[in-house]
Amino acid sequence: MAETAVQTEHESGAAPAPPPRGRRGRRTVLVASALVVVAAVAVVGALGLGGGGAEEGSSAPPRSDSTVPVTRTTLTERTTVDGQLGYGAEIPLPVKATGTVTWLPAEGTTVKRGGTLLRVDDRPVVLLYGSLPMYRELGLTADDRQDAPQGTRQGTGTAGDTERSGDQGRTDETSSAPAPSGSPTPGGTGSGSGAGSGGTGGTLRGMDVLQFESNLAALGYTGFTVDEEFTALTARAVKRWQESLGLPRTGKVGIGDVVYSAGKVRIGHAGVRLGSPATDDALKYTGTSRKVVVNASAAEDSWAVRGAAVTIGLPDGKSVKGEVASVGKSATAPEEGGGEGGSATPTVPVTITVKDQKSVGRLESAPVTVEYVGRERADVLTVPVAALVALAEGGHGLETSDGRFVAVKTGLFADGRVEVSGSAVREGMNVRIPE
To answer: What pLDDT band is residue 415 in, cutting at 50, 70 and 90?
Structure first.
Protein backbone atom coordinates (compact mmCIF):
# COMPACT_ATOMS: atom_id res chain seq x y z
CA MET A 1 0.00 0.00 0.00
CA ALA A 2 2.80 2.43 0.83
CA GLU A 3 4.32 1.77 -2.60
CA THR A 4 1.02 2.64 -4.27
CA ALA A 5 0.75 5.89 -2.41
CA VAL A 6 4.21 6.98 -3.45
CA GLN A 7 3.44 6.24 -7.12
CA THR A 8 0.27 8.31 -6.92
CA GLU A 9 2.09 11.32 -5.54
CA HIS A 10 4.70 11.04 -8.26
CA GLU A 11 2.10 10.84 -10.98
CA SER A 12 0.36 13.93 -9.64
CA GLY A 13 3.61 15.89 -10.00
CA ALA A 14 4.03 16.50 -6.28
CA ALA A 15 7.60 16.78 -5.16
CA PRO A 16 8.65 14.15 -2.63
CA ALA A 17 9.21 15.37 0.87
CA PRO A 18 12.83 16.08 1.64
CA PRO A 19 14.47 13.64 4.04
CA PRO A 20 15.06 14.79 7.57
CA ARG A 21 18.26 16.73 7.92
CA GLY A 22 21.30 14.55 8.52
CA ARG A 23 19.65 11.18 7.64
CA ARG A 24 21.40 10.76 4.29
CA GLY A 25 24.82 11.23 5.85
CA ARG A 26 24.06 8.61 8.50
CA ARG A 27 22.99 6.09 5.84
CA THR A 28 26.27 6.55 3.94
CA VAL A 29 28.28 5.96 7.09
CA LEU A 30 26.30 2.80 7.94
CA VAL A 31 26.79 1.29 4.46
CA ALA A 32 30.52 1.95 4.54
CA SER A 33 30.78 0.37 7.96
CA ALA A 34 28.93 -2.72 6.81
CA LEU A 35 31.30 -3.14 3.88
CA VAL A 36 34.29 -2.91 6.18
CA VAL A 37 32.85 -5.57 8.49
CA VAL A 38 32.11 -7.96 5.61
CA ALA A 39 35.62 -7.49 4.25
CA ALA A 40 37.13 -8.14 7.64
CA VAL A 41 35.14 -11.36 8.07
CA ALA A 42 36.23 -12.53 4.62
CA VAL A 43 39.88 -11.91 5.45
CA VAL A 44 39.60 -13.68 8.77
CA GLY A 45 37.91 -16.64 7.09
CA ALA A 46 40.62 -16.84 4.47
CA LEU A 47 43.34 -16.82 7.09
CA GLY A 48 41.68 -19.57 9.09
CA LEU A 49 41.24 -17.27 12.09
CA GLY A 50 38.03 -16.22 13.85
CA GLY A 51 35.92 -16.85 16.87
CA GLY A 52 34.10 -19.77 18.42
CA GLY A 53 33.00 -23.01 16.90
CA ALA A 54 29.38 -21.95 16.47
CA GLU A 55 30.30 -19.02 14.26
CA GLU A 56 32.79 -21.12 12.25
CA GLY A 57 30.23 -23.85 11.67
CA SER A 58 27.62 -21.40 10.51
CA SER A 59 30.02 -19.78 8.01
CA ALA A 60 31.12 -23.12 6.35
CA PRO A 61 28.78 -25.95 7.37
CA PRO A 62 29.96 -28.43 4.67
CA ARG A 63 33.52 -28.58 6.09
CA SER A 64 32.51 -30.65 9.12
CA ASP A 65 31.31 -33.43 6.78
CA SER A 66 34.08 -33.22 4.14
CA THR A 67 36.48 -35.64 5.79
CA VAL A 68 38.26 -38.72 4.49
CA PRO A 69 40.31 -41.36 6.30
CA VAL A 70 44.01 -41.95 5.76
CA THR A 71 44.21 -45.39 4.11
CA ARG A 72 46.99 -47.89 3.56
CA THR A 73 47.20 -49.22 0.00
CA THR A 74 49.46 -49.77 -3.02
CA LEU A 75 49.96 -46.82 -5.36
CA THR A 76 50.73 -47.52 -9.00
CA GLU A 77 51.93 -44.82 -11.36
CA ARG A 78 50.59 -45.26 -14.88
CA THR A 79 51.93 -43.39 -17.88
CA THR A 80 50.38 -43.06 -21.33
CA VAL A 81 52.37 -42.72 -24.56
CA ASP A 82 51.37 -42.58 -28.21
CA GLY A 83 51.69 -45.57 -30.51
CA GLN A 84 50.75 -46.73 -34.00
CA LEU A 85 48.64 -49.80 -34.71
CA GLY A 86 49.61 -51.75 -37.81
CA TYR A 87 51.38 -54.86 -39.04
CA GLY A 88 54.89 -53.72 -38.15
CA ALA A 89 57.79 -52.72 -40.35
CA GLU A 90 57.90 -54.12 -43.87
CA ILE A 91 60.77 -56.48 -44.65
CA PRO A 92 62.05 -57.34 -48.15
CA LEU A 93 61.38 -60.92 -49.24
CA PRO A 94 64.63 -62.73 -50.12
CA VAL A 95 63.65 -63.27 -53.75
CA LYS A 96 66.51 -64.98 -55.63
CA ALA A 97 64.73 -65.72 -58.89
CA THR A 98 66.21 -63.99 -61.93
CA GLY A 99 64.22 -62.73 -64.88
CA THR A 100 61.28 -60.46 -65.55
CA VAL A 101 58.50 -59.92 -63.03
CA THR A 102 55.29 -61.03 -64.75
CA TRP A 103 52.82 -61.03 -61.83
CA LEU A 104 52.53 -59.38 -58.41
CA PRO A 105 49.94 -59.92 -55.67
CA ALA A 106 47.82 -57.06 -54.34
CA GLU A 107 49.14 -55.21 -51.30
CA GLY A 108 47.54 -56.60 -48.13
CA THR A 109 47.18 -60.13 -49.52
CA THR A 110 47.89 -62.96 -47.09
CA VAL A 111 50.05 -65.78 -48.51
CA LYS A 112 50.30 -69.14 -46.75
CA ARG A 113 52.61 -72.13 -47.19
CA GLY A 114 52.53 -73.31 -50.79
CA GLY A 115 51.10 -70.02 -52.05
CA THR A 116 52.58 -67.94 -54.86
CA LEU A 117 54.39 -64.77 -53.84
CA LEU A 118 55.07 -63.49 -57.34
CA ARG A 119 55.87 -64.82 -60.80
CA VAL A 120 59.20 -64.35 -62.56
CA ASP A 121 59.37 -65.29 -66.26
CA ASP A 122 55.86 -66.64 -65.60
CA ARG A 123 57.24 -69.14 -63.08
CA PRO A 124 55.76 -69.05 -59.55
CA VAL A 125 57.98 -68.21 -56.58
CA VAL A 126 56.46 -70.26 -53.76
CA LEU A 127 56.35 -69.52 -50.03
CA LEU A 128 57.50 -72.25 -47.66
CA TYR A 129 58.04 -72.15 -43.90
CA GLY A 130 61.47 -72.28 -42.32
CA SER A 131 64.36 -70.31 -40.90
CA LEU A 132 67.12 -71.51 -43.21
CA PRO A 133 67.31 -69.53 -46.48
CA MET A 134 67.38 -71.23 -49.84
CA TYR A 135 71.06 -71.24 -50.76
CA ARG A 136 71.46 -74.08 -53.29
CA GLU A 137 69.54 -76.18 -55.79
CA LEU A 138 67.95 -79.32 -54.39
CA GLY A 139 67.83 -82.50 -56.49
CA LEU A 140 69.43 -85.86 -57.20
CA THR A 141 73.17 -86.01 -57.74
CA ALA A 142 74.66 -87.87 -60.70
CA ASP A 143 75.42 -90.94 -58.56
CA ASP A 144 71.90 -90.92 -57.12
CA ARG A 145 70.39 -91.11 -60.60
CA GLN A 146 72.68 -93.97 -61.58
CA ASP A 147 72.10 -95.91 -58.36
CA ALA A 148 68.32 -95.40 -58.21
CA PRO A 149 66.44 -98.61 -57.30
CA GLN A 150 64.77 -100.51 -60.11
CA GLY A 151 61.27 -99.18 -60.59
CA THR A 152 62.31 -95.57 -60.02
CA ARG A 153 64.99 -95.34 -62.76
CA GLN A 154 63.97 -93.96 -66.08
CA GLY A 155 63.50 -96.49 -68.91
CA THR A 156 63.13 -99.65 -66.77
CA GLY A 157 59.64 -100.33 -68.04
CA THR A 158 58.43 -101.50 -64.63
CA ALA A 159 55.07 -100.68 -63.11
CA GLY A 160 56.70 -98.30 -60.68
CA ASP A 161 58.09 -96.26 -63.55
CA THR A 162 54.74 -95.50 -65.17
CA GLU A 163 54.70 -91.96 -63.73
CA ARG A 164 58.16 -91.12 -65.03
CA SER A 165 57.88 -92.77 -68.46
CA GLY A 166 54.87 -90.67 -69.32
CA ASP A 167 56.88 -87.50 -68.68
CA GLN A 168 60.09 -88.63 -70.31
CA GLY A 169 59.87 -86.09 -73.08
CA ARG A 170 59.28 -83.17 -70.73
CA THR A 171 61.90 -84.34 -68.25
CA ASP A 172 64.59 -84.72 -70.88
CA GLU A 173 63.62 -81.42 -72.42
CA THR A 174 63.93 -79.46 -69.20
CA SER A 175 66.83 -81.28 -67.58
CA SER A 176 69.24 -79.64 -70.01
CA ALA A 177 67.94 -76.15 -69.23
CA PRO A 178 70.53 -73.93 -67.57
CA ALA A 179 70.20 -73.47 -63.80
CA PRO A 180 69.19 -70.05 -62.49
CA SER A 181 71.99 -67.54 -62.22
CA GLY A 182 74.12 -68.16 -59.17
CA SER A 183 72.80 -71.70 -58.63
CA PRO A 184 75.51 -74.14 -57.56
CA THR A 185 75.76 -77.60 -59.10
CA PRO A 186 74.58 -80.32 -56.69
CA GLY A 187 77.41 -82.59 -55.71
CA GLY A 188 80.00 -80.32 -57.29
CA THR A 189 81.81 -77.14 -56.41
CA GLY A 190 79.65 -74.80 -54.34
CA SER A 191 77.05 -77.43 -53.51
CA GLY A 192 77.16 -76.49 -49.84
CA SER A 193 78.11 -78.30 -46.70
CA GLY A 194 75.23 -80.70 -47.11
CA ALA A 195 76.58 -82.25 -50.30
CA GLY A 196 78.44 -85.50 -50.16
CA SER A 197 82.19 -85.66 -50.56
CA GLY A 198 83.92 -86.77 -53.70
CA GLY A 199 83.15 -83.94 -56.11
CA THR A 200 80.37 -85.34 -58.31
CA GLY A 201 79.49 -88.28 -56.09
CA GLY A 202 77.47 -88.69 -52.92
CA THR A 203 73.86 -88.06 -51.90
CA LEU A 204 72.62 -84.52 -51.30
CA ARG A 205 72.18 -84.14 -47.57
CA GLY A 206 71.67 -81.30 -45.12
CA MET A 207 69.29 -79.38 -42.89
CA ASP A 208 67.98 -77.54 -45.92
CA VAL A 209 66.83 -80.87 -47.35
CA LEU A 210 65.03 -81.68 -44.10
CA GLN A 211 63.38 -78.26 -44.11
CA PHE A 212 62.20 -78.63 -47.69
CA GLU A 213 60.94 -82.20 -47.23
CA SER A 214 59.02 -81.12 -44.11
CA ASN A 215 57.21 -78.51 -46.20
CA LEU A 216 56.56 -80.96 -49.03
CA ALA A 217 54.97 -83.41 -46.60
CA ALA A 218 52.92 -80.62 -44.97
CA LEU A 219 51.52 -79.79 -48.41
CA GLY A 220 50.28 -83.37 -48.74
CA TYR A 221 53.01 -84.91 -50.89
CA THR A 222 54.15 -88.24 -49.43
CA GLY A 223 55.93 -91.41 -50.47
CA PHE A 224 59.32 -90.45 -49.07
CA THR A 225 61.00 -90.25 -45.68
CA VAL A 226 61.29 -86.79 -44.16
CA ASP A 227 64.97 -86.62 -43.27
CA GLU A 228 68.18 -84.88 -44.31
CA GLU A 229 68.65 -86.93 -47.48
CA PHE A 230 67.26 -86.04 -50.91
CA THR A 231 66.43 -89.41 -52.57
CA ALA A 232 64.74 -90.60 -55.72
CA LEU A 233 61.51 -90.87 -53.77
CA THR A 234 61.86 -87.20 -52.81
CA ALA A 235 62.36 -86.34 -56.47
CA ARG A 236 59.15 -88.17 -57.40
CA ALA A 237 57.20 -86.13 -54.82
CA VAL A 238 58.79 -82.94 -56.16
CA LYS A 239 57.57 -83.81 -59.66
CA ARG A 240 54.00 -84.16 -58.44
CA TRP A 241 54.33 -80.81 -56.66
CA GLN A 242 55.73 -79.18 -59.81
CA GLU A 243 52.86 -80.55 -61.86
CA SER A 244 50.35 -78.89 -59.51
CA LEU A 245 52.14 -75.58 -60.05
CA GLY A 246 52.15 -75.95 -63.84
CA LEU A 247 55.91 -76.36 -63.95
CA PRO A 248 58.04 -78.85 -65.91
CA ARG A 249 58.48 -82.05 -63.89
CA THR A 250 62.23 -81.91 -63.36
CA GLY A 251 62.37 -83.24 -59.81
CA LYS A 252 64.74 -80.41 -58.95
CA VAL A 253 64.09 -77.29 -56.88
CA GLY A 254 65.96 -74.23 -58.10
CA ILE A 255 67.43 -71.66 -55.74
CA GLY A 256 64.91 -69.07 -56.95
CA ASP A 257 61.85 -71.36 -56.88
CA VAL A 258 61.01 -70.93 -53.19
CA VAL A 259 61.29 -68.35 -50.41
CA TYR A 260 61.26 -69.28 -46.73
CA SER A 261 59.62 -67.33 -43.90
CA ALA A 262 58.71 -68.10 -40.31
CA GLY A 263 55.02 -68.35 -41.20
CA LYS A 264 52.33 -66.88 -43.41
CA VAL A 265 52.99 -63.35 -44.62
CA ARG A 266 51.03 -60.24 -45.51
CA ILE A 267 52.16 -58.67 -48.76
CA GLY A 268 53.40 -55.13 -48.40
CA HIS A 269 54.75 -52.59 -50.85
CA ALA A 270 56.18 -53.82 -54.15
CA GLY A 271 59.65 -52.54 -54.97
CA VAL A 272 59.29 -53.21 -58.71
CA ARG A 273 56.67 -52.93 -61.42
CA LEU A 274 55.44 -55.55 -63.84
CA GLY A 275 57.96 -55.98 -66.59
CA SER A 276 60.90 -54.95 -64.42
CA PRO A 277 63.79 -57.26 -63.59
CA ALA A 278 63.39 -59.19 -60.33
CA THR A 279 65.54 -57.76 -57.54
CA ASP A 280 66.24 -58.53 -53.90
CA ASP A 281 63.66 -55.94 -52.82
CA ALA A 282 61.06 -56.86 -55.42
CA LEU A 283 58.46 -57.45 -52.73
CA LYS A 284 58.12 -56.56 -49.06
CA TYR A 285 56.09 -58.27 -46.41
CA THR A 286 54.95 -58.14 -42.79
CA GLY A 287 53.47 -60.61 -40.37
CA THR A 288 49.72 -61.17 -40.44
CA SER A 289 49.07 -60.16 -36.82
CA ARG A 290 48.39 -56.55 -35.91
CA LYS A 291 50.74 -55.00 -33.41
CA VAL A 292 51.60 -51.62 -31.95
CA VAL A 293 54.89 -49.78 -32.33
CA VAL A 294 55.85 -47.09 -29.81
CA ASN A 295 58.80 -44.77 -30.29
CA ALA A 296 59.76 -44.65 -26.63
CA SER A 297 62.13 -42.10 -25.18
CA ALA A 298 65.53 -43.72 -24.78
CA ALA A 299 65.86 -41.97 -21.43
CA GLU A 300 62.55 -43.32 -20.12
CA ASP A 301 62.26 -46.81 -21.58
CA SER A 302 62.75 -48.80 -18.38
CA TRP A 303 59.13 -49.95 -18.65
CA ALA A 304 59.84 -51.56 -22.03
CA VAL A 305 60.83 -55.03 -20.89
CA ARG A 306 59.99 -58.08 -22.96
CA GLY A 307 56.84 -59.69 -21.56
CA ALA A 308 55.65 -56.54 -19.73
CA ALA A 309 51.88 -56.11 -19.81
CA VAL A 310 50.39 -52.88 -21.18
CA THR A 311 46.94 -51.54 -22.01
CA ILE A 312 46.21 -50.30 -25.54
CA GLY A 313 43.60 -47.58 -26.00
CA LEU A 314 41.82 -47.79 -29.38
CA PRO A 315 40.30 -44.81 -31.24
CA ASP A 316 36.77 -45.99 -30.39
CA GLY A 317 37.48 -45.72 -26.67
CA LYS A 318 37.88 -49.46 -26.06
CA SER A 319 40.95 -50.92 -24.36
CA VAL A 320 42.74 -54.18 -25.20
CA LYS A 321 45.60 -55.99 -23.54
CA GLY A 322 49.06 -56.04 -25.08
CA GLU A 323 52.50 -57.37 -24.29
CA VAL A 324 55.95 -55.99 -25.06
CA ALA A 325 57.49 -58.34 -27.63
CA SER A 326 60.74 -56.59 -28.53
CA VAL A 327 62.73 -53.43 -27.85
CA GLY A 328 65.04 -51.87 -30.40
CA LYS A 329 68.72 -51.76 -29.53
CA SER A 330 69.51 -48.67 -31.59
CA ALA A 331 68.20 -45.23 -30.65
CA THR A 332 67.05 -42.88 -33.37
CA ALA A 333 68.23 -39.29 -33.06
CA PRO A 334 65.50 -36.61 -33.00
CA GLU A 335 64.86 -34.59 -36.11
CA GLU A 336 66.80 -31.36 -36.48
CA GLY A 337 65.09 -28.64 -34.49
CA GLY A 338 64.12 -30.93 -31.62
CA GLY A 339 60.39 -30.90 -32.33
CA GLU A 340 58.06 -28.62 -30.40
CA GLY A 341 59.98 -26.58 -27.89
CA GLY A 342 63.23 -28.26 -28.95
CA SER A 343 62.88 -30.91 -26.24
CA ALA A 344 62.82 -34.04 -28.39
CA THR A 345 65.05 -36.89 -27.23
CA PRO A 346 66.38 -40.00 -28.99
CA THR A 347 63.86 -42.85 -29.20
CA VAL A 348 63.88 -46.62 -29.49
CA PRO A 349 61.14 -48.67 -31.20
CA VAL A 350 59.10 -50.84 -28.86
CA THR A 351 56.92 -53.52 -30.49
CA ILE A 352 53.81 -54.62 -28.63
CA THR A 353 51.79 -57.68 -29.65
CA VAL A 354 48.04 -58.16 -29.28
CA LYS A 355 47.16 -61.74 -28.42
CA ASP A 356 43.41 -61.36 -28.99
CA GLN A 357 43.34 -60.11 -32.57
CA LYS A 358 39.53 -60.09 -32.62
CA SER A 359 39.50 -57.46 -29.88
CA VAL A 360 41.05 -54.96 -32.31
CA GLY A 361 38.11 -55.31 -34.69
CA ARG A 362 38.69 -54.47 -38.35
CA LEU A 363 41.25 -51.75 -37.76
CA GLU A 364 44.42 -52.26 -39.78
CA SER A 365 46.14 -48.98 -39.06
CA ALA A 366 45.35 -46.29 -36.48
CA PRO A 367 46.94 -44.05 -33.85
CA VAL A 368 46.53 -45.54 -30.37
CA THR A 369 47.66 -44.92 -26.81
CA VAL A 370 49.69 -47.31 -24.69
CA GLU A 371 49.41 -47.22 -20.92
CA TYR A 372 52.14 -48.84 -18.89
CA VAL A 373 52.98 -49.18 -15.21
CA GLY A 374 55.84 -46.98 -14.07
CA ARG A 375 56.73 -46.69 -10.40
CA GLU A 376 54.83 -48.57 -7.70
CA ARG A 377 54.71 -48.09 -3.92
CA ALA A 378 53.26 -50.94 -1.88
CA ASP A 379 51.67 -50.74 1.59
CA VAL A 380 51.88 -46.96 2.06
CA LEU A 381 49.60 -44.39 3.73
CA THR A 382 47.65 -42.34 1.21
CA VAL A 383 45.05 -39.55 1.02
CA PRO A 384 43.30 -37.87 -1.91
CA VAL A 385 45.51 -35.20 -3.48
CA ALA A 386 42.74 -32.66 -2.71
CA ALA A 387 43.36 -33.16 1.04
CA LEU A 388 46.82 -31.58 0.87
CA VAL A 389 47.16 -28.00 2.13
CA ALA A 390 50.11 -25.63 1.80
CA LEU A 391 51.56 -24.67 5.16
CA ALA A 392 52.66 -21.10 5.94
CA GLU A 393 56.09 -22.30 7.02
CA GLY A 394 56.46 -24.25 3.75
CA GLY A 395 55.77 -27.79 2.67
CA HIS A 396 52.48 -29.67 2.81
CA GLY A 397 50.17 -30.70 5.59
CA LEU A 398 46.79 -32.17 6.43
CA GLU A 399 43.95 -30.63 8.43
CA THR A 400 42.53 -33.00 11.01
CA SER A 401 38.84 -33.23 11.79
CA ASP A 402 39.34 -31.12 14.97
CA GLY A 403 40.98 -28.25 13.04
CA ARG A 404 44.65 -28.99 13.70
CA PHE A 405 47.27 -28.94 10.97
CA VAL A 406 49.96 -31.62 10.79
CA ALA A 407 52.96 -31.54 8.50
CA VAL A 408 53.47 -34.47 6.11
CA LYS A 409 56.05 -35.60 3.61
CA THR A 410 54.64 -36.48 0.19
CA GLY A 411 55.75 -39.38 -1.97
CA LEU A 412 54.29 -40.93 -5.12
CA PHE A 413 51.27 -39.29 -6.79
CA ALA A 414 49.01 -41.72 -8.66
CA ASP A 415 45.34 -42.28 -9.46
CA GLY A 416 44.29 -39.06 -7.70
CA ARG A 417 45.97 -40.04 -4.44
CA VAL A 418 49.27 -39.20 -2.83
CA GLU A 419 51.60 -41.08 -0.51
CA VAL A 420 52.00 -39.29 2.84
CA SER A 421 54.21 -39.95 5.85
CA GLY A 422 55.06 -38.23 9.12
CA SER A 423 55.18 -38.75 12.86
CA ALA A 424 51.65 -37.40 13.32
CA VAL A 425 50.04 -39.41 10.49
CA ARG A 426 48.43 -42.75 11.20
CA GLU A 427 46.12 -45.09 9.35
CA GLY A 428 42.42 -44.38 9.90
CA MET A 429 42.73 -40.76 11.07
CA ASN A 430 40.21 -38.42 9.43
CA VAL A 431 41.38 -35.37 7.54
CA ARG A 432 39.41 -32.58 5.91
CA ILE A 433 39.09 -31.80 2.25
CA PRO A 434 39.44 -28.00 1.88
CA GLU A 435 36.35 -26.41 0.31
So the answer is: confident
